[in-house]
């Protein structure tokens, strides 16, 4: 007998789990299908040589203190019925944007960023206040102005090109699927999440967030099927009627939410013979993890995250040649958060480096060459990073590296594109009346953004329209 659900959710990442919880609260029969053996997608974790590693997590963005009534974090806590304390978020110590000869610090207080801009670019502080006023009323779910050019928008506000490049650097690194420029709407979303709200992290990492999400989903009667990859979405006329799994099992549903990405979801639909794969995202990364024999602060690295670029022009494009482009990157230490005294220090000192990479070149390597190149580019990315932070290389006792191939395996995104396709669909709609997107290609990114995406799409398409 074929199982029938109110909603099938493709993907057990943050957005899929959040959507599942929201729907299960309203007694919907919900099934989440996850192709891998564990949940989380790229925001997951693994264990190697006795150590736990987070995948993808530098920081939880959109952080606001306990008691805050507005913002994405407050919204998700309210809608999923969690307490602020459940996620045990500890704020950052302080981060920086580092370009040659100029360094702008920022933390979770907007006034500090104001003071830093006044210090580094005193002629631009009034223009910065003008920018803040223009961002105040942006609606995250309005498609109309989303795709405008951010570079053009900022050039009309600031007359200092270097400040524009420096403001764009962390925002593009943390949520931009489009090369060189950034959609205006994505800029507004990321500016708020990083500069007007901020960074935090659970002491136990992403595992804690996933544990709460899956525990809540199952307690409400939700069904999770691991190692259950979807082979196809069955279509009848203008509606999806169910899915066929790779093992041949068929499931039926009134509606389907997919966090797989717009192109990847279209490829599953059995009514489409052509998918515009050329519209897939191209920006992907390698990430290295260095384990130190002491805390990063003991070797002089006291900041939480440093976004660096080695020239006045920010490089946000796939590499023109070679496997990676080390001219820009992200340096992060999970040790450098203000954990409570009861938590203490993380056992290992950790520094994570993220570098732009080329999927096709990594994909086409032989296995032997793939392993060799991982070590080669680890060395190159570290050498680039230590131009902007204290040199920690003499304290490294263990390393690991994951590449665009790893990202492709855990997200299913074409080209291992971390932020999915450049063209976002803010209302989550597709060519079918009851098939909807959530997650990266809906337009919200990061852990909090992904969770809010799942909630928003569940509310909009699965609760208001319950046919």
Walk me through this protein's architecture.
The protein is globular and about 65 Å long. The strands form four sheets. Strands 1, 2, 9, 10, 11, 12 and 18 form a seven-stranded mixed sheet that branches. Strands 7-6-14-15-16-13-17 form a seven-stranded mixed sheet. Helix 2 (about 70-80) crosses helix 13. The mean pLDDT is about 95. The protein folds into three domains: about 5-45 and about 205-280 and about 420-465, FAD/NAD(P)-binding domain, CATH 3.50.50.60; about 110-195, no CATH class; about 280-410, no CATH class. Strand 10 and strand 11 (about 240-245) form a beta hairpin. The chain is about 30% helix and about 25% strand. It is an alpha/beta fold.
